[in-house]
Amino acid sequence: MTTEQSGHDHSLAIRQEIQRFESVHPSIYAIYDLIDLVSDTHIAKQIREHVVAIEDSFVNSHEWTLARDVPELHLGIIGSSDSGKSALVHRYLTGSFMHEESPEGGRFKKEVFINDQSYLLLIRDEGGVPESQFSAWIDALLLVFSLESEESFSIVCSFYNRMCSFRNMSEVPKILVGVQDSINDSNPRVIKDIRPRKLACDLRCPYYETCAVYGLNVERVFQDVCQKIIQHISAKHYRCNGQQAIENEIKYPVPVIAKNTQFLTKEMEATNSSKLNVSDKDEDTRSFHHSSIQNDSAIIGDNFHNTQNQHGDFRSSILTPTTIRKFRRKSNIFTPSKKEKYNMGEMGVGREIPVKQGYLFKRSSKSLKEWKKKYVTLLEDGRLTYHSSLHDYMNDTNGKEILLQYVTVKVPGKTPKGSKSSNAQEDSFEFSIISLENKTWHFEANNAEDRDSWISAIEQQILSSLQNSDGDKKNETDAFKMHCIKNKVSGNDACVDCGAANPDWASLNLGVLMCIECSGIHRNLGSHISKVRSLDLDDWSAGQLSVMLALGNDIANSVWEYCLNGKQKPNSDSLREEKEQWIRWKYEDKIFLPPINPNISLGKLLIDSVCRGDMRAFTLCLARCSYEDINMPVSMEDLRTPLHLACATGNLAMAQLLIWHKANPQNLDHEGRTCMSYVRALERTLDNSSDSMEMQKLLEVLEQASVSGVDDVETSQY
């Protein structure tokens, strides 16, 4: 850009800012004129006071009041309206989770301390397609997408492409952020982790996965990006004096999904040619190496350029107040979602017809114990669901469910059959559903007849569930999980060591599948290296299944085969001797593992990987850790071990792997709490029966490990 062009652009920006600034007061004066027309003087006075406060805030904004030496950090955030960026910012600013997205974006300010220096952080959450003004304003950029949305990933790539047309983005510090908020059993992960890792490598930036629900990595993302801004500014201002920016980030920051019950699904593959193929069709797991990129604008493929034209809501950016927003000043952050809903008739979207349905009152489990009206359905498969409204039920949103197999129904104050009871008229028509874990759901009907009808129907479904569950339910669940391990976990369609199709043997502690020939070689290594099981012939515990679902061949090989050093991997037709040599190199000699950061202890790296839910880094640490590393506390003051942290987040797979590597479940933290205490505390916060069952499985693993003892845990837990 020439000096003349730069001067012209600056002049245009200055004129636009003056025009924006001067347009505010006429609008405020117009509001005062309208207030004079309000007949209710009390309301008019209140409105006037609010407008005066707004005017005072505007004229005393920071450009007129803050000293010129107050340092500012300009952080921009881009992503689709369903990317989770609003919840990410809200969690960082308030420490709480906000489910609703704000399509308009937002502007926020926060004081941050970096190296004991105070900075004013200006956060600009862009509500649409980024324009040139936004691109020029930022000091750093967060690229946010949802891990359960292919569209969200495509949109953030398209947005970044657009910014590259306004500015050389290679000079801008940035972080790629994958959001886990919407991932659950019924809404699995769509974006395979190799794709954002590859994108992050090409962008030459870190990649984190966050969860605003639990706060996973949220604080870290904002701290890191602020640190990068300061390093970038320092390097730019003081390079001539020999001062260099300090890179403090831990290498190998490749988080994967923390929720251990999830499994990776097959992605949609891009059909158009592109400069960067963001599908994973031909990608190799050894994509940790950074590519040499001449121009960041060439990073994102052409197949994403038309995304913004396909989404009308992104055509105009809704930024700082303009005439467009004159009548829309209220942020959508506090309003109900405007997402399009499916309208498939009264029964909802393709679901079974309930045995019984209708409105009941439900008592809240929170401290206020409020009674709220719920639309309740009883299903033939032994589930009772409740939604806030019929509309939510029809659209299958915001629902909760209770599994009836292991519950009982009680009526408060009702005497047992055969005993004398009073004839006093009932004041309420309540009944309770109580689980084996002593969790209680309180409901109330409109009359005694309706209550008795619900109780009778629920008891019938409980009986049916018990009659049909004698081994069949468990076998069906295990069969489904086995199907997921074979067909849904990434890379498990071929042997982990030779690539033979349809492997049906597994290594529990490695979390991989292999063919029968390679399984025999694994047995020869010894159970301390690889514990072999048959997928079809052996029984599997919940902890074992969770490990197999959380890892898989792709994740394992991205660690165990990180750097082959020119050695040729055998195939299914190779000689047994060649396969055995390869397997011993890989798991016994560990010659293909990636390097570890020498400046950070293995124990600290392990703790970091557990906190981030980073299964890949976690696997690498386990491959190198000693007993002392496995049981290392966070600090001298904070005595939580990696197992405490895994239990605090309910990560069954990580907890099981730590126990197999001789983590002591009886260790106490600095407040005298055991790992079981963390699981029980987490369980009390859950309002979902399936999540509670996961916590019960985790408690069983801990109890068995505690009974067996740490010295025997390797043999007893396998």
Automatic annotation (TrEMBL):
Residue stretches making up the Arf-GAP domain: 460-600
CDD domains the record matches: ArfGap_AGAP (cd08836), PH_AGAP (cd01250)
Keyword vocabulary terms for this entry: ANK repeat, GTP-binding, GTPase activation, Metal-binding, Nucleotide-binding, Zinc, Zinc-finger
ANK repeat windows: 638-670
Gene Ontology terms for molecular function: GTP binding; GTPase activator activity; GTPase activity; zinc ion binding
Domain PH: 353-463
Pfam family, one: PH
Family designation: Belongs to the centaurin gamma-like family.
Protein name according to UniProt: Centaurin-gamma-1A
Species name: Melipona bicolor
Origin organism lineage: Eukaryota, Metazoa, Ecdysozoa, Arthropoda, Hexapoda
